[in-house]
Amino acid sequence: MSASLRIAARELRGGLRGFRVFLLCLMLGVAAISAVGLVREAIRGGLSDQGAALLGGDAQFEFTYRRPAPEERAWIDARAVASSEVVEFRSMLQTGAGEALETALTQVKAVDNAHPLIGTLQLDPPLPVSTLFAQTDGPSAIFLDQILADRLGLAPGDPVRLGGITFTMAARIQREPDSTGAGTGLGPRSIVALPAIEDSALLAPGALYETELRVTLPPDTDLDALRAEAQAHFDGAGMRWQDRRRAAPGADRFVTRLGSFLVLVGLAGLAVGGVGISATVSAWLERKAETIATLRAIGATGGMIRAIFLWQLLALSVTGIAAGLVLGSAMVLFASGLIERLMPIPVDVGLSARPLIEAGLYGALVAAIFALWPLSRMLGQRAARLYRRNRTGRFSLPAFGALALIALLIAALVALAVWFSGMVMLTLGTLGGIALALGLLAIAGWLVRYAARALSHLARGRPALRAALASIGGPRSEAVPVILSLGLGLSVLAAVGQVDAGLRGAIAQDLPEVAPAYFVLDIQKDQLDPFLTRLDAIGGVEKVETVPMLRGIITEINGQNAREVAGEHWVLRGDRGVTYAETPREALTAGDWWPADYAGPPLASFAAQEAEELGLKLGDMITVNILGRDIEARITSFRDVDFSTAGIGFVLTLNPAALAAAPHTHLATIYAPPEAEAPILRDLAGAFPNITAIRVRDAIDRVTEALGAIARATSLAAGVTLLTGFVVLIGAAASGEAARAWEAALLKTVGATRRTVLASFALRSALLGAAAGLVAILFGALAGWAVLELVMEATFRFAPIPALAIVSGGVLATLLAGLVFALRPLSARPARVLRASE
User: Fold this and answer.
1) Using CA atoms, how far apart are residues 57 and 247, in angstroms rounded to an integer?
2) If you placed Cys at 459, which of 389, 465, 681, 767 could pair as Cys (CB 3.0 to 4.6 Å)?
């Protein structure tokens, strides 16, 4: 061991010449992963540290579409130091009248005089929250989000109407202490005093709102014990518990998943870097072939030779990984101020051990996997063969022991990725996609070589093309490493481009044909007939559909906790729309509908696809809590519910006798062309100030904006992969500079002009870049189809513009890398090059 270490140290004294690509590939991959991990950890740390501020208290008791009864409030207050009641709902703000009427959707927060329990509400101009409760002869005060005030052209002192009640705008909201924990609404925020709307139609029986009773607790409170006590006390009352330990579960889940996905995309960059590592190690071992042969000839064992080179690779890997960690940390620290300003919550961006360890382990495993392959192949050759100048021959695999070790390292890499991300399917799907892309690119590289050899005879009379094809199909061809290094980054970009274009295309082409213009909520029972009569008189309305609507939480399946039975399915997260009907709105896929005028125990019809995902069967009992009352219903049928139309669709429908007596409102969908949308909204808002009209296109735009942000983040991560691939390309071009000089000298000797030689080099680069781009398009189309058709259930349409951009980018990248390193071989004199090789 000491002898091998001593020899390895002497070898490394020659410097790092020839290992720049090795170090750059490893450094870029590790830097990207560590930077993403550090930002993800900072955001998660902020969500954890600011839990009480984000939630608005130490714990929160949430009631759906009702307020806590006096005895419920007394039970909670007896265990709290302080409490604050907040009621949240959507509504419409209005200014002006007649043709000058302006409306805007808003997420309203009605608060009591104890709000906020924790933190400070920041306003412009600075005002205390008590302004909302000031006793005046005029309208009560209202605080509006900056965007909302600008949209309606409101300034402090201007009047604005909410649910038919006139308020005076007092200030603009700059930051809410509990904004992230409350979730995301469809409209900007408004804050009013709870007493100002308590007796209005906004909180009438059946109206859609949520009550959040937030509390601060004694310092020694056991949250787990209090949670268990509360769930036992409020069993069947529809209470949902939340505490400071996970104040914003949706945000935490989103940050974790997106951060983990971007780390996995960063692994794609490391995989591309692995190609460069393998090529660098191969070239290095090629230069050391005679040294290896000499060591063998004087009696060195295979183990000692292997140890010599492993010591050197270990030193280089540690150097590259350390440089990557330093670079990733430096980038995050440099941008920390910008990151902290962009975050909606206070975060402390800094160094953290977990993401750095994760990035370092990924870098070490990738370096080992891709370096062991060429090392094992070279050390397996005989000394006599190593002394020969031309060692290219049949492709050979490493020994079985080396293959087993490489397989073990790959398994360790996958296991670590699953463990660090905590999401098995996302990790396996992403790594499987990367492996599939690498496999397709490797096959494409071999096919390009074969095709170049097979088609070279067709290029007779075209010396530049024939020389390019001969080089691509030759024994020292760069086809496989070039296509691998460039193609993977292009594949990720192609997949992002196809998915993004597919979603935008689905919205642009499908939405006008199938989607309503508005969803209208909170239509009271006595308003339904006048509402329909008014719509009949409005021009442009094509169709109106109405259904009774309640909201409920599915709590149990066959008497057991629903989440324990079916997991974290989206149907079980939060409350869901519930309706009742005499006849089915959709086609039944199984079972029977209840008879007309059925008045027995509650019966239910469930959406077929969601029922299958939850593992429900006909005859199962399902418990749904509506307005604090548990209703247990037997499933008698499944329905084919298509949520992609953006029309009315309910997961759960009950028989009328089960719900008709409960306080509820009606939901309506209005179908109309875009030019009729504004007059319809103006008319309805003036006649029914309590209703909430949600423009479907605005809701879709918010979703599209979020998806666009994810696409940009993924493209940025893919850009690191492309940069790594370009480094590999430059390395391959630089290492092949001597071969190009020899090739150029031979071509000039037989009469080729500089123009012909340059055209040959350019054609070679362009063909390889086009091949990488075409494979990337194939993979991008496949990934886009899988995501859109199988995951999002949207129609896949191939997008040609991103595809052409991918091919053009591949051709341009290889041309730049190839031609830059072709200039010196072109200028060299043939006689000098040919003499130097003797």
Assistant:
1) 9
2) 465
Mean pLDDT of the chain: 78
Q: CA–CA separation, 575 vs 562, rounded Å?
A: 13
Residue 93, classed as helix, strand or coil, is: strand
Strand ranges (E), 205-319: 210-216, 239-243
CA distance 599 to 630: 18
- Tell me the backbone φ, ψ of residue 85, rounded to 5 degrees: -105, 130
Which amino acid is it at 757? Answer: V
Q: Give the whole-angstrom CA distance, residue 669 versus residue 667.
A: 7
For tokens 């339904």, the residue is 528
Closest CA to 716 of 165, 109, 265: 265
Distance CA 362, CA 248 (A): 30
3-state secondary structure of 478: coil
- How many residues would you count in the chain? 838
Measured between alpha carbons, how far is 190 from 165 in angstroms, rounded to an integer? 14
Q: Is 751 helix (H, G, I), strand (E, B) or coil?
A: coil
Region of poorest pLDDT, from 205-214, 272-281, 548-557, 619-628: 272-281
Distances (CA, A) of 471 to 476, 731, 739: 8, 18, 10
Q: Which among 659, 689, 698 is positioned nearest to 551, based on CA atoms?
A: 659
CA distance 773 to 483: 9
CB 84 within 8 A of CB 117: yes
* Contact in structure between 766 and 811 (CB atoms under 8 Å): yes
pLDDT band at 684 (very low <50, low <70, confident <90, very high): confident
Contact by Cβ (8 Å): 81, 57: no
528-576 pLDDT, tens per residue?
A: 888 888 888 877 788 888 889 888 888 889 988 888 888 878 888 777 8
Q: pLDDT digits over 316-368, tens only?
A: 888 888 988 998 888 888 877 776 666 656 667 778 888 888 888 988 888 88
DSSP 787: I
Closest C-alpha among 666, 447, 629 to residue 550: 666
Q: What structural domains and CATH numbers belong to the chain?
A: 1-48+250-422 (no CATH), 51-246 (no CATH), 450-516+696-838 (no CATH), 543-671 (2.40.70)
The total of other beta-carbon atoms located within 10 Å of residue 218's CB is 9
Q: Which of 800, 792, 811, 776 is nearest to 495 (CA)?
A: 776
Q: Tens digits of per-residue pLDDT, 425-443?
A: 777 877 787 788 778 778 8
Strands 560-561 and 576-580: unpaired
- Which pLDDT score is estimated for 255? 63
- The token pair at 340 is 């902290």
Residue 439: exposure state from Cβ atoms within 10 A (0-12, 13-18, ≥19): exposed
Take residue 753 and report the two structure tokens written for it: 């002009």
The answer to whether 487 touches 813, Cβ cutoff 8 Å, is: no
Helices 674-687, 528-537: axis angle to 10 degrees equals 140
